[in-house]
């Protein structure tokens, strides 16, 4: 029965990682410069899940396979006065859509809750089984 | 196993059902953990199939022995293999829902309902098992 809790925990870890990525996307919504201070608009990151949990070493559960960049085009805004404007006067802003991120955050939260519910159910089972012995 | 004590009445049936429910809990947890995994199809086993196999075993046991007990002749089904004291599950796809764009056919409501059902089954089985054991204990003590 203990293995079942591992499965739910892997779900919790994966959803929490996803939430971190969403928070990072939201925080960098207007970031135009990279860490070195050069002009390089932030690109949205996407979390990709895959079945199997390396922590327990079984095929059950879930893990974060990769965090990759969203290839969607950057948002171009006409700001000819900006020092970052290109030849046509456009500044490219990050391809982060706040609404999508919020929806994603909500989904991650619900999925987290669902995993908690399963873990609670498993705990209830374990308790009632332990009461058989005691 | 103490013959006549631990295989009396409903105890073997309760034990098998508990085994089944605890194995199934693993599948249900896996389905929920992989809600957002692209291409993942949740697996499940049929409860009704197992219960009808269990029902047949109970009938056969009643014919073979008296109503009071004896071993439970549980037969394997397509999904549930009886290996001595253990149960081995070979689950099939639960495929309850339409495919989403990420080729996952998740169904939160069904998954949660199955989970609630499974936990409740387990609780019922353990409660019945426990009351049976309490009865045994009071018989051993020779006082209520």
Describe the 3D structure.
- The complex is a heterodimer of chains A (134) and B (144).
- With 134 residues, chain A is of the alpha+beta class.
- Chain A has two helices and four strands.
- In chain A, the strands form two sheets. Chain A has a two-stranded antiparallel ribbon. In chain A, strands 3-4 form a two-stranded antiparallel ribbon.
- In chain A, a hairpin with a 4-residue loop joins strand 1 (45-53) and strand 2 (58-69).
- The model of chain A has no long low-confidence stretch (mean pLDDT 91).
- Chain B has helices at 11-33, 47-64, 108-141, and strands spanning 43-44, 80-83, 86-89, 92-93.
- The chains are: A alpha+beta (134), B mainly alpha (144).
- Chains A and B meet through helix 1, strand 1, strand 2 and helix 2 of A and helix 1 and helix 3 of B.
Enumerate the strands of the largest sheet of chain A in spatial order, edge to edge or round the barrel. Answer: 1-2
The number of helices of chain B is 3
- Please tell me how large the radius of gyration of chain B is: 18 Å
CA-to-CA gap between the ends of chain B? 25 Å
**Strand ordering within the main sheet of chain B:** 1-4
User: Based on helices, strands and strand pairing, what is the structural class of chain B?
Assistant: mainly alpha
Helix share, percent of chain B: 40-55%
- Please report the number of helical segments of chain A: 2
Biggest chain-to-chain interface with counts = A-B, 34 and 30 residues
Point out poorly predicted stretches of chain B: none
Could you say which overall geometry of chain A the principal axes of the C-alpha atoms support?
Answer: elongated
Radius of gyration of chain A: 21 Å
Strand content of chain B: 5-15%
């Amino acid at each position: 029965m203990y293995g079942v809790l591992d499965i739910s925990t892997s779900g919790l870890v994966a959803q929490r990682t996803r939430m971190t990525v969403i928070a990072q996307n939201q925080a960098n919504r207007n970031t135009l410069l990279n860490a070195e201070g050069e002009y390089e608009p932030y690109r949205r990151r996407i979390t990709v899940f895959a079945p199997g949990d390396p922590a327990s070493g079984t095929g059950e559960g879930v893990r974060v396979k990769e965090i990759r960049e969203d290839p969607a085009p950057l948002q171009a805004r006409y700001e000819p006065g900006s020092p970052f404007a290109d030849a046509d006067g456009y500044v490219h802003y990050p391809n982060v859509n706040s609404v999508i991120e919020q929806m994603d955050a909500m989904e991650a939260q619900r999925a987290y809750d669902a995993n908690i519910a399963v873990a609670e159910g498993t705990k209830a089972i374990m308790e009632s089984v332990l009461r058989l012995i005691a | 196993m103490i013959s006549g004590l631990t295989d009396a009445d409903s105890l073997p049936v309760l034990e098998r059902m508990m085994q089944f429910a605890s194995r199934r809990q693993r599948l249900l947890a896996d389905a929920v953990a992989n809600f957002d995994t692209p291409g993942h199809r949740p697996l499940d086993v049929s409860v009704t199939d197992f219960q009808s196999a269990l029902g047949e075993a109970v009938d056969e046991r009643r014919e073979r022995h008296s109503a009071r007990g004896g071993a439970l002749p549980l037969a394997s089904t397509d999904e549930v293999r009886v290996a001595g004291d253990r149960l081995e599950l070979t689950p099939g796809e639960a495929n309850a829902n339409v495919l989403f764009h990420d080729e996952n056919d998740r169904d939160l409501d069904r998954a949660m309902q199955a989970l609630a059902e499974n936990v409740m089954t387990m609780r019922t089985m353990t409660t019945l098992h426990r009351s049976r054991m309490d009865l045994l204990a009071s018989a051993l003590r020779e006082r209520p």
